[in-house]
Amino acid sequence: MAQSSQITPGRAYGFFTDTSVCIGCKACEVACKQWNELPGNDPVFGDGFDNTGSLDAQNWRHVEFIDNVPDETMGTGQGKAWLMMSDVCKHCQHASCMEVCPTGAIIRTEFDSVYIQQDVCNGCRNCISACPYNVIGQDEHKGVAQKCTLCYDRLQGGMEPACSKACPTDSIQFGPVDELQQMARQRVADLQEQGVTQARLYGDDASVYGGLNAFFLLMDEPEKYNLPNAANAVLPSRNNVGGYLGVLATAVLGVLGGLIALRRRREPAAETPSETRPETEAGEE
Amino acid sequence: MTILAEAQHFVRPPDWTWYILFYFFFAGLSGGSYTIATLFRLRGERSDEPAARLGYYAAFAALLPCPVMLILDLGRPLRFWHMMWNTTPDAAGFNFVYWSPMSVGVWALLLYGVFATVSFAEALVRDGKIRLPLAQGAVRLLDGTLGKLVIAAGAVVGLFIAGYTGVLLAVSNQPVWSDTWALGGLFLASGMSGSAALLMLLTRYRPEAQASAGMLAVSERLYALLELALIVVFVLTLIPAGTLGLTFGFPWILLWLVALAGLAPGIAGLLTSRLAVTGEGTTVAVHATSAATTLAVPALVLVGVLALRAAVIFSIQ
């Protein structure tokens, strides 16, 4: 835990995930599943160390492996990338999921985290369609949407979340967001000073969804970690006005089209000026 | 040689599939049929009244599967009412999230259900299918301005129902869906064209409505043109986002071809006959035309309406 003080309702809490010290051990995944009683999915064995796949209803922490390393034996420094990141719900200040939820199931808790109330959600999956980070999944047995709760129950009991508690390298740090931000800025400055110029922060300021309560220190561009960059971190509601104006314009044209059709059916064709019948028998009243 | 920065999408698809496809299809047909029926009654002639009633019957019938599809699609169908009532402890109350099209759509569908049911019942009474004195008295209330106001309001909500489904898809972070503002208009235009085709098809079974077949034929052409224009807008808006290949790639291109085939009769009619009912400029009674015209053409248009929605929904999921 980043600080020694008590966990106090009314204060914003979150994670600072420093990917520069992640060793890919997945202790966070195990601790999360154990505490939250998540059965998990069948492991996926692909071409890499990632057998979790992605964040979803069963995986609320997911260690991503970004390995752009050739299979052949090569000398040191030949690989282009060998990065690990423990991904998690970002608990965005401007949360896309919360914005579109029609039931009010997604709320902001007293710890400023974004929480899906399991007894209110009806499984419409609008939040899944909105979350830009591929965080939320629908539990196939319960039928509702699930994601990281920032260990809401543990926070209420004064305990830090299971994943950060278990992280052996302090890659995941939990604490008040303002303290974590200070710590992260110091850390990135230190790294830069040491010549690790690729180190950067993601989500520590308002440029991404108003700020992420769970933010990251990355060793490459955000998109390499499947995180949209600041220009692409946009909210679903941006399309409301354009979408409805499109409907309105089409509706006006549609009604106009109908009125034209009502008029023109009684008129002779423009091509056939010889025919001057004013009315057809079908159109007469 | 990408000049514009393409949109980045890392989202998971919401798994909205067959139930949602058919909801979108029936919502388009119901709202469109109600609107055309209302145009007949408000701006048509006395001879258009049978077609207007046919439109209200079709609007009601097409509406019936809509809530069923929506409820079955939920992970917890018995909690469908949570869309309307927030059950959060200490925050219980009505849910109306005006910036979430799903929330707005639930209320609009409920409201539209009232209009569609009233107009359906009114048509039954006027057709003499219901002879209860109470019902006849109630329908007499709708004879004048009140009746016109009711169906005009119903048509506005009907147009919304036919079109908001596209906005619902756009208000997300999904590739294709959220990269365009044209989907709402596109679904509405396609719903209108499908509704004109559906009513053309149904006039076969209601001979007294055939007096209105000319209007349906001409309007179907105009709606096909409107839909084609919106498909062009849809394509143009996807180019800068770099997601055009996602929805028009194989095999989805086949569905788009079916959707375009559904537009072919309307566009061809526009090219050959412009806005005249036939190439000769005369109204031809439906019973005098071939079955191919009154059965196969509307069926093709309706298949196109379904294929368009299927292409949009399935191509990114």
Your description of this structure?
The complex is a heterodimer of chains A (about 280) and B (about 325). With about 280 residues, chain A is α+β, with helices and mostly antiparallel strands. Chain A folds into two domains: about 15-235, Alpha-Beta Plaits; about 240-285, no CATH class. In chain A, about 25% of the residues lie in helices and about 15% in strands. Chain A has helices spanning about 25-35, 95-100, 125-130, 150-155, 160-165, 175-195, 240-265; strands spanning about 15-20, 60-70, 80-90, 105-110, 115, 135-140, 145, 170-175, 200, 215-220. A four-stranded mixed beta sheet of chain A has the order 8-1-10-9. A two-stranded antiparallel sheet of chain A has the order 2-3. The longest helix of chain A has 25 residues, at about 240-265. The model of chain A is unreliable at about 270-285 (pLDDT under 50). With about 325 residues, chain B is mainly α. Chain B has one domain (about 20-315): Formate dehydrogenase/DMSO reductase domain (Formate dehydrogenase/DMSO reductase fold, Up-down Bundle). Chain B is about 65% helix and about 0% strand. Chain B is built from eleven helices and two strands; from the N terminus they run H-H-H-E-E-H-H-H-H-H-H-H-H. Chain B has helices at about 20-45, 50-65, 65-75, 100-125, 135-140, 145-170, 185-205, 215-240, 245-250, 250-275, 290-315; strands spanning about 85, 95. In chain B, a hairpin with a 6-residue loop joins strand 1 and strand 2 (about 95). Chains A and B meet through helix 2, helix 3, strand 6 and helix 7 of A and helix 1, helix 4, helix 6, helix 7 and helix 8 of B.
List strands and helices in order, with pairings.
The complex is a heterodimer of chains A (285) and B (317).
Chain A: E1 13-18, H1 27-36, E2 61-68, E3 81-88, H2 96-100, E4 106-108, E5 114-116, H3 126-130, E6 137-138, E7 145-146, H4 152-156, H5 162-166, E8 172-176, H6 177-193, E9 200-202, E10 214-218, H7 240-264
Chain B: H1 18-43, H2 49-63, H3 65-73, E1 85-86, E2 93-94, H4 101-126, H5 133-141, H6 145-170, H7 183-203, H8 213-241, H9 244-248, H10 252-273, H11 291-314
Antiparallel strand pairs in B: 1-2
